[in-house]
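Technical annex B. To support the medicinal chemistry partners, we prepared a structural model of the target in complex with NAP, based solely on the information shown next.
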Amino acid sequence: MKELLNLTGKTILLTGASRGIGLATAQRLLEAGAHLVCLSRTSGGLGALQLQYPQAIVHYGVDLSNAAQLELCLNNLPQRLDGIIFNAGYFKPALLCETALLDFTTHLQVNVTAAFQVIRHCWSRLRDSRGAVVLVSSLAGVPNVEKFPTAGAYTASKMALTGLCEVLAAEGREFGIRANVVAPGSVDTDMLRSAYPDMKADFKPDDIARQILFWVSDASAPVSGSIVMVKT
Ligand SMILES: NC(=O)c1ccc[n+]([C@@H]2O[C@H](COP(=O)([O-])OP(=O)(O)OC[C@H]3O[C@@H](n4cnc5c(N)ncnc54)[C@H](OP(=O)(O)O)[C@@H]3O)[C@@H](O)[C@H]2O)c1
């Protein structure tokens, strides 16, 4: 099993690596031997990891809410990619009837359209490497799980991400490309603390990072198209 979790020689693209679940995931992937290409607006906590793993991290500052900026940024990616972890996320709570159109479309752009852009751009790389895609959704993105008021735009975007995964798995199968969703419950990060200050989180970021490591590694092969709910 340990061998299957080893990512030595692999290059993984990770979005939202600057803090929270993404930063914990970066740490786990680096420990497993991966090289990382990280996308987020700021480098945040990656600075400390760069000191520890100076050759293993490249960070590109990009705002995923800006589709054109993301397209330009994608031209910098290395030729080889063995995996994509789309983890970056945006959540601004509001009742649906009070949600501004721009806020709704920003949720869709950051949480799902950007994932589509990244995957479409990297498709030939994923084919070459028979790569793995992990999409970080949420219990909000899983049907028949009780939903929160004020999370309408977020829920719509995360449901769309789940649908994207299922089609990706179908289209990737003949090329050996796998796609799976990790859908966590509450995690102790900036996102949860600012949205629901009184909520006690069920998970720490590293609990989710270990799940993501499993799904991007050969340890989870050949499973594809799974929606993995992470619940206590
Ligand atoms: N926390 C929870 O309870 C929970 C539960 C279920 C699912 N999730 C999901 O888990 C993922 C990680 O969330 P988290 O809790 O770790 O949140 P977080 O601590 O707020 O981190 C969010 C990450 O996304 C990046 N990001 C946000 N907006 C961006 C933008 N416009 N452009 C580029 N990068 C952007 C941030 O980087 P910069 O600010 O540097 O750009 C940061 O690295 C998200 O997809 C979230 O929906 C979280």
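Notes passed to the chemistry partners:
Residues 16-22, 40-42, 44, 63-65, 87-91, 110, 136, 138, 184, 186-187, 189-192 surround NAP (CB under 6 Å).
The radius of gyration is 16 Å.
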